[in-house]
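Researcher: Next entry in the queue.
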Amino acid sequence: LRRIIEAAQEAGVTRFYVAIDGPRNKEIEASQQVMHEYLDGYARNVDLEIKIWQRDENLGAATSVLTAINWFLGNEQAGIILEDDLVPSLDFFEFVSLALDKYRDDTEVWSIAGSRILESNAASGVSDWSTYPMIWGWATWDSKWKIMYPLLVGKSRLPFYSLFSPTANFWAVGAKRAKRGMIDAWDIPLANVQRLSKKYSLIPPTNLVTNIGFDKNAT
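Model: Structure for this entry, 219 residues:
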């Protein structure tokens, strides 16, 4: 959290929305208290606006993230979404800021990605488009999220031409499992809906965000 806020502040971000899921145990509760003390102190010492939404109970990854985005984009017209295990570079904020302005009114573009798992295009500086949303550091608009959210939590059916596609069925089955509570995931329904809707994410020429959430603290 400290890394994210310091990097964002250096990039010129002044408003933060911090959504914290309810603790699963006493150890996490103690860690969250440290987070609150840090946020309170940071907000007093610098010219920042930090809004905190602490949940009383543990909602799990899917419900916690989705409701957090609803809260955030219910107050902003556009913005950046970063989970706590991500380390964004300064270039990430510049890339996203430019893209949010450029594609605001483009109905085909649903999100701006900060991570890239494809081979780097750093030498040429060429971005790519994908119907798969990369959400290890991303950004979107409230107008686009209002379209996405009902689709990813509601019922969706594969069109006839996709019934025999292994890829389409993979995402459709994953989304159905998530909606039934068999897996605690929100990104699979998002990927399924974006692919079905044939909407796009802008992928940067090279990776701009590091994911460090693969240790004992990972959800």
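Model: DSSP finds seven helices and nine strands in the chain.
Researcher: Noted, moving on.
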